[in-house]
Amino acid sequence: MSIDENNNEVGAGSQPEPAQPAAPASAHSASVSAAQNAAGNAVGSFLALQQSNPKIFYGAIAGVVLVLLLLLVGGGGSESKLPVHQAKPVVVGQNYVLKSANAHDPSSTVRLVAVPGSMAAYDDTEENDREGGCKHIPQGTPVKVTQSQDAYGKKDVFAEVEMLGGECEGKKGWALSINLQ
Questions:
Q1: For residue 116, which of 83, 105, 151, 158 is within the disulfide window of CB 3.0 to 4.6 Å?
Q2: Residue 168 exposure: Cα atoms within 13 Å on the Cβ side
């Protein structure tokens, strides 16, 4: 018997030797390829389940979709509620400052109209209506409420204001009461 045959016989009946630690780069690539093989085997066995037992296959898919829907629809707890603007009663004759309740940009303006209730009746796609006429007043402009108007079953939704400062001083217009602070 030659030395090679002797090594083969000894190697065939014995336990394999433990693997020697490899270099870090090859260990990383080996673990990545092992993970890819495991994922490939899992997908392969899952797809084989479609052929052998389609009820379980489609039931598993439906279960995953159901869990995702529950997570999306479930929402947060009570601590994740959005803040709500607390409307304060408007007092005729009182001085206020214009501040848009819905804008976070300090350079945004507050829209004033000639008739209460026409807030949504303008086309905002054109910029030429923003010039002159005191229609768009900068936030922080001091105003005085001259009268209020009820609308939509709520009290004091609109307020007629007189400008106390700025280039439109002395002019009047209607604004939403939530824009007065």
A1: 158
A2: 19
